[in-house]
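Study this one:
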Amino acid sequence: MAKKRHPFRKKGGVLVIPIDLILSENYRTLYRYSQQLLLLLQVHWREDRPVAFGVREVERLLNCDRRTAMKAFDELQKRGFIVKIDESLFNSRTESRSRTWRLTWLPYDWKSPTEEWEKWTNEN
C-alpha cells in the first residue's frame, strides 16, 4: 500500500510563517522586494546554522538590480526581521562566501526566536 502523504506536503517543501507576522503593520508596509526576500531567506533556513544568501542571488531570483536587492536587505535589517551574522568575503584565490543571516522569527542555534520584528513601530 502506498504511503499517505500529508496534504500540505508538496514537492520541495512548505514554508510556514506566523500569522501575527503576516498581519503585522511591520510586514504589511514592507517594500514588495523585501517581502519576497523574506520568503527566499526562509527557503534556506536551518535551525543549526545561519542563512547564507547574498545580493547576487536576490538580483537573479527577484529579477532586480543591485540597489533594489541591497535596499531589501537593509529594510529587513532595520525592521528587525534579520540580523547579520557574518560579512561576505570575495577572494578569487581562496574561497568566497555570502553574508549570513539569522531570521529573528525562527529558532537559531537551537535557541528560541528573538522576534525583534515585533519591536518595530512606524515612528522608527
Q: What stands out?
A: The helical segments are 19-23, 25-28, 32-43, 55-62, 66-78. Residues 66-78 form the longest helix (13 residues). The chain has a mean pLDDT of 88. The beta strands are 51-52, 82-86, 100-103.
